[in-house]
Specification:
Strand 11 (545-550) and strand 12 (553-559) form a beta hairpin. The protein has two domains: 7-319, ABC transporter type 1, transmembrane domain (ABC transporter transmembrane region fold), CATH 1.20.1560; 369-379 and 421-589, P-loop containing nucleotide triphosphate hydrolases (Rossmann fold), CATH 3.40.50. The protein has 19 helices and twelve strands. It has helices at 6-16, 20-52, 57-106, 109-114, 117-159, 161-208, 210-215, 219-271, 277-319, 381-389, 411-417, 432-437, 446-455, 459-463, 481-495, 511-525, 560-565, 570-577, 582-589, and strands spanning 341-348, 358-365, 370-375, 396-401, 404-405, 418-421, 430-431, 472-473, 499-503, 529-533, 545-550, 553-559. Helices cover 65% and strands 10% of the residues. The structure holds adenosine-5'-triphosphate and magnesium ion.
């Protein structure tokens, strides 16, 4: 089992470092509260001894009033400490959430393929929550309670060394038991969190695919999976609770024995006139109070265990190397305007896949050329586009744009120059404005936004939106497939890339939308290099070149008109199958 180590400690320190002034303030207040609480049993003893000594009533009243004042102040201070600690932990927690989110967003598609969204949420939110609770409750209280214990033991020693020794012994035995059990519970906590991550991940996925599940009658299977997962979650939670709460119970018993022993010792000492009744009372109160901090510590060890597991996983996530790392070159390394695309003997295998998706791909596309990519489903068309955008890196060979290896470019610079419009358009539940500008990451004026909407032929649709650019888009479902595609085009236009990768939606659109889409495609591709993955050959009427992909290899590459004319070409055969007559093609091509 990996132990809590330097990585985790550094992560925690880095997270709280910006809060160190507030933390110092909080701990300062805490210590004052502790001193007051430490004084209370001594005041009680003083009161009892004064009463036995027959001191006047107003003297006793003054002690009583002071006692109440001290108790009240201690409570108020404790309240301020809690308030400050919760605030501090929120800020620190959010800082960590931000760091984790940033890192997760930069991780490559392969990593995201292996981790469901639910798992990611649990990691970033659930684990950080555990850490935040740690900051709020554990750090401050553990420090405070340890200090309180030291204070009480010191006072006990001053009253009577033997009584002090007894309390020290009780504390040491209790603490040892707790430390032993604490380490035993960490793996159980970790298993619990992992089981929860799987449960929520599955749940998220199932809810996301609700429509498909219902349509295919897979509901029973999904419910069965849910049962299995929640059963595992419950089992792991139970063993974690056994181990975690066990330590709490053992400590409670230890301190009960300690208190009884202190009381017995107190009476023996009083019998020998070594201590007063008031001091016996104070010692007994201390022995009782000694229990509380250790109980608190035990209680918070549960959180500490969660926090340790959370910290370990957070630091694991942060230390996941970026497979797609920035190269040294910025935008300026690329020529301006449309860019060439070159695949030099590229081979590519998806992580974990047994077979390569691409083999020995050599493909050279001149700047400004529009290339239609055709081939059977699963032949590797989408994969080609992904390599250009560096959603994945080639396993062998290299991909260049504008003559520069994509791995030598800063990822952000690369993605400024290349836009991909994918098969499934992703629309977000936010305003039309934010959907187009990708939450403002591509700043644009309202006029520019209207202009791109016009260019893709969405003006009629836009005119019907009562809220204009503030119209709330509630996910892809609220638009027709055609409108969603057009919106994606508008988004790509706004990015003003020099290479466009267009992965055609395989769903069929009505002829009117189809015509609109074709006009929008023209607007989008003008003056840019384009890879157009098409399922309908009609889409490729206007392209310059055709690439036929077959089982991950380039089976054919040439000028569209020549390939269409050449009766022996694969493309001509495809045209024939799709019902577009070669003769008609020749007419168009000439
Ligand atoms: P379609 O016409 O259906 O869109 P395509 O030509 O675009 O197909 P790709 O998506 O490039 O095909 O897939 C090429 C091969 O790689 C297929 O065998 C596919 O199963 C596999 N593949 C695609 N994406 C992944 C992935 N994320 N992980 C593992 N294998 C993948
Ligand atoms: Mg595809």
């Amino acid at each position: 089992m990996p132990r809590f180590g330097g990585h985790e400690a550094r992560l925690l320190l880095a997270t709280v470092r910006p809060e160190r002034r507030q933390a110092t303030g909080i701990i300062g207040l805490l210590f004052i509260a502790l001193l007051l609480r430490l004084a209370m049993p001594a005041m009680l003893g003083w009161f009892v001894d004064s009463a036995i000594d027959g001191r006047p009533a107003d003297f006793l009243t003054r002690i009583a009033v002071a006692y109440v004042a001290v108790a009240l102040t201690a409570e108020i201070l404790q309240l301020s400490v809690t308030w400050g600690a919760v605030n501090l932990s929120w800020r620190a927690g959010n800082r960590l959430r931000e760091r984790l989110s940033r890192h997760a967003l930069r991780l490559e598609m392969g990593w995201h393929g292996r981790h469901s969204p639910g798992q990611l949420i649990e990691r970033i939110d659930g684990d950080v929550e555990a850490l935040a609770v740690f900051f709020a409750n554990v750090l401050v209280h553990v420090v405070g309670n340890v200090a309180l214990m030291i204070g009480m033991l010191t006072v006990a020693f001053v009253i009577d060394p033997i009584a002090g020794g007894l309390l020290v012994l009780t504390s040491i035995v209790g603490a040892l038991i707790l430390v032993k059990l604490r380490t035993a519970a960490v793996p159980a906590r970790e298993a619990e969190r992992e089981a929860n991550a799987i449960l929520y991940g599955d749940l998220e996925e199932r809810l996301g695919g609700l429509e498909d599940l219902k349509a295919n009658g897979a509901g029973r299977y999904a419910v069965h999976r849910l049962h299995t997962n929640s059963a595992r979650s419950w089992r792991t939670a139970r063993s974690a609770a056994w181990l975690g709460d066990g330590s709490y119970a053992v400590a409670a018993v230890t301190f009960a024995i300690g208190s009884v022993a202190t009381l017995a010792l107190g009476f023996v000492l009083h019998d020998r006139n070594l201590v007063s009744i008031g001091q016996v009372l104070a010692l007994f109160r201390y022995s009782e109070m000694l229990r509380q901090p250790l109980e608190r510590i035990a209680e918070q060890l549960k959180e500490l265990q969660k926090a340790l597991a959370g910290a370990r996983r957070a630091s694991l996530l942060l230390s996941t190397e970026l497979a797609i790392a920035d190269g040294p070159l910025g935008d300026e390394a690329l020529p301006s305007g449309a860019l060439a695309i070159d695949f030099d003997d590229v081979a590519f295998t998806y992580t974990g896949a047994s077979e390569a998706a691409l083999h020995h791909v050599d493909l050279h596309i001149a700047p400004g050329t529009h290339v239609g990519i055709v081939g059977r489903t699963g032949s590797g068309k989408t994969t080609l586009g992904r390599l250009v955008l560096r959603l994945w890196d080639a396993t062998e060979g290299s991909v260049r744009i504008g003559g520069v290896d994509v791995r030598d470019l800063e990822v952000a610079a690369l993605r400024r120059r290349v836009s991909v419009v994918t098969q499934d358009v992703e629309l977000f539940r936010t305003s039309l404005h934010d959907n187009l500008t990708m939450f403002g990451s591509r700043p644009a004026t309202d006029a520019e936004l209207r202009s791109v909407l016009h260019q893709v032929g969405l003006d009629t649709w836009f005119a019907h939106q009562t809220d204009g650019l503030d119209t709330q888009v509630s996910g892809a479902q609220s638009l027709s497939a055609g409108e969603a595609q057009l919106l994606a085009f508008a988004r790509a236009l706004l990015a003003d890339p020099d290479i466009v990768v267009l992965d055609e939606a395989s769903s069929r659109l009505d002829p009117v939308t189809e015509a609109k889409l074709s006009a929008a495609t023209d607007a989008l591709l003008r003056g840019r290099t384009a890879l157009i993955v098409a399922h309908r050959l009609a889409t490729l009427d206007e392209v310059d070149e055709i690439v036929v992909v077959d089982a991950g290899r380039i089976a054919e590459h040439g000028s569209r008109s020549e390939l269409a004319r050449d009766g022996t070409s694969r493309f001509a055969a495809l045209l024939a199958v799709s019902g577009i007559e070669a003769a008609e093609e020749e007419g168009l091509g000439a």
